[in-house]
Amino acid sequence: MQFDLAQAISLASAIGTVMASFLIIFQIRSFEAWNRRQISNQILNEFVSGTLEDSLEAIESQFGWDLLSEGQSYRKIVRNFEQDTADRDEIELDRYLRRILRRFEAICISMDHKIVDEKTCREYIVSLLTAIHKSTAEFIEKERVKRNEPRVFEYVERYVHRWS
Predict the structure, then answer these.
(1) In 3D, which of 155, 154, 163 has the Cα closest to residue 108?
(2) Which residues contact 158 (CB under 8 A, 6 or more apart)?
(3) Tens of pLDDT along 30-72?
(4) Containing domain of residue 152, as a range?
(5) Which residues contact 127 (CB under 8 A, 6 or more apart)?
(6) Positive or negative torsion for Cα 99, 101, 104, 106
(7) In a domain, 154, yes or no
(8) Which residue has better confidence, 55 or 5?
(9) Does 97 map to a domain?
(10) What percent of the chain is predicted at pLDDT more than 90?
(11) Is residue 137 part of a domain?
(12) For 33, which DSSP code?
């Protein structure tokens, strides 16, 4: 078999094209992963130092409930409301809890769909999510019954169990 220069050049060109394609794919995937981590970091920074912090502080100042400490459950807090303001207080507390859990639910759904990086999210929120879930489990059940929807905050629970 005779070695043809034109065939050798074509073969080298094809190999070069394949290698360049692999490098481009690798760079695109690396960029996507980096971008996902950056977006995760940004979302979590805003959540942890914004909405979550504000809601936790409001719950503690208005209702005397530190969601991150053990020993106090939703029912116990609601049971201790003053009788003349109990309904209004419960509605207000529920509003804060829904806000917090909806944000966690959105983050968990984003992790599930690989929109944000699970590892980054876990490092940011694992202790917050598990503590808040533990404190609000009765509230979550109440919301499910109220809405007749067993999947309310389903992704929050999925990630709490996954990370436990």
Answers:
(1) 155
(2) 108, 112
(3) 667 677 777 766 776 676 667 788 899 999 999 999 998 877 8
(4) 37-163
(5) none
(6) negative
(7) yes
(8) 55
(9) yes
(10) 46
(11) yes
(12) H
Residue 25's pLDDT is what? 76
- Which one-letter amino acid corresponds to residue 51? T
Rounded Cα–Cα distance for residues 100 and 87 (Å): 20
**Number of domains making up the chain:** 1
Tokens of 109: 């759904």
Which amino acid does the sequence have at 91?
I
Contact 67, 136 (CB under 8 A): yes
Q: Please list, in sequence order, all residues whose beta carbon lies within 8 angstroms of the beta carbon of residue 93, skipping any fewer than 6 positions away.
A: 59, 62, 63, 65, 77, 78
Q: Does some domain include residue 17? A: no
The secondary structure of 134-162 as a DSSP string is: HHHHHHHHHHHHHHT-TTTTHHHHHHHHH
**Cα distance between residue 32 and residue 24, in whole Å:** 12
Supply 52's token pair: 């979550």
